# Entry
Amino acid sequence: MSSVAIPARRSTIRRLRYAAPRVFATLLAFVLAAIWLGPLALMVITSIKPNKEFLNGPFALPIAPNFDAYQKVWEGLNFGVLMQNSLLYATTGSALAVLLALVPAFALSRFEIPGKKYVFALLLTGLILPQQTVLIPLYATLRFLHLLDTRIGLIIVHGVYGMPAQILILRGFMTTIPREIEKAAQIEGATDFQIFTKIILPLSIPGIVVGYTLNFIAIWKEFVFALVFLNSESILPVTVGMLKLNSDRYITAFNLPSAGLVISQIPIVILFILTYRGISSGNFVGSVKG
Amino acid sequence: MASVSLIDIEKRYGAQVVIPKLNLEIADGSFVVLVGPSGCGKTTTLNMIAGLEPITAGQLRIGERDVTDLPPKSRDIAMVFQSYALFPHMNVFDNIAFGMRIRRLSRSEIESQVRGVAERLRIDALLDRKPKALSGGQRQRVALARAMVRRPGVFLMDEPLSNLDAKLRIEARSFLTKMHLEVGTTTVYVTHDQSEAMTMGDTIVLMKDGVIQQAAPPLEVYNEPANMFVAGFIGSPAMNFIELSKAGARLIDPAHGLEFEVSERLRTALEDFRNPKVILGLRPDALRPAPRNAEPKGAPRFTIDVVQHLGHETLLDASRGPHRLVARVSAGDDSKIGEVRAFLADLDKMHLFDPDSGVNLSSRYAQSAIRPDPLGSAV
# Structure
């Protein structure tokens, strides 16, 4: 170690220089968090304030928090049924999308298919196209199949619409499975189907979980398809069901939609808490390799 | 146990011929090593025997059966991969039992077989572990157990020791050799390491560009290499090659004052050889510096460039003009860098090669009709 005394000033300056970027990053993180969480916080606060209080001061904390809004919304909109429907569409629609995607994803990850590039282009188009562009064709198809205003109809739509994204995610995962493992299974006597079920599927589970979760959240938030393809109140999901609050009677009651929103977010928050560590660990993000 | 016969085997990828006609007989119970540089076709050949690569043309027989078009599971083979290819989501027991479960053997049968092999390979304490909790050597033994438990007719091994560190590799080498002696299954083993090939095989099959350069027992490949490629690949440090001109029964380079006498047994071959130039091949252990006080007149003289003391022996790098050589001498040698010394060559260990084709003039290959083409051909 050096025996030369370093003047105190210099070392403080050095410490500041090292700390500065970190301090800046922390500040930035706080600002971003405030921007993200602000509206959510406002939503929660608004939901437990009586409406008059909100009109007086939107950002003020509630004097006496009450849950009247929650009760009103739950009973008035038959929220239980709405949540059930949303749950149904999200769980089954997502499952269908994943199921449909498994075999194509495997094929794309392994085989040299002529025109593979075009298949990828097609899939990516499926991702980019907004829902509005396929509304009319889907409507016509559902009507032809007598599936308008049915739960099954919407589930099928979600399944098919989510399939391209699932194929891309799963394919990325499957390319990380070493080929030699399949060769070894082949030599051990496994048929192609057995290789798929006993080797590929178990090893793809992380990818399936990621894909399913993302699709679940997407369907839960989904509005357009449900709005256009469903009519009967009993089968509406939360997103469309809450439209009732837009009618003249309720439009000024800010606490009601806030309460509705808070309730509808709870399953998503739970799901996210359960799975976020897996998704954010990074090695699950399937990259699309040409 | 079964023999393996490759008859006129060809492998083509589209228009590109990777392996022109290949013929090889692997005797029942033998340990055959396919060795060669990267891209020589050894792994492709192994994969064709396994059924993982389709055979473009020719016939493959295992035992008495024509298996050319059969899938891997019908060929009665087992394979150990370089990366072991263990199933990461299963524990050791399930990995070993995989094949038997596919074939729906009874639980008790599977239990006893798996434990039996595991005990033999000393991995019975690891049966509950998953591959990621195992060391490299342990994983290798699990891969071996998985192959052995099926009691196949042929073992196929694709560089199974490449992923092990040097010390473990030597242990594993003798382990595999002992296993072969005990179990006696026909084994086809691929490696790029020539010392592995020498120490493990009954027969070495040296390949280059898809063509077999020589297929013979290790000592024969070492002492009677068919051509320059074989001579230079097998043996470490590599054989020295010195290009010289014919002068009766001597080989000379007058420009640099080099003169080598050719032994009796090579004189006829040398005489019959038309080309005025010949390549002299001498292994490092066939050369040594003459004692300083007894240098024969006319002995070739080289300048010492580098002296490497290995402890048990010493390697001398020497040169003369464009000619370079490496000599392996006793540890007591006291040559100094820059010193010029006369070298003695062991006449019995001399080889002569055709500078154009690389063929060894002194071996029977020069005379036989089956001349391995060391330059390889893609036709």
About this structure: Chain A touches chain B through 15 residues (CB under 8 Å). Residues 2-47 of chain A form one domain. The mean pLDDT of chain A is 85. Residues 8-47 of chain A form the longest helix (40 residues).
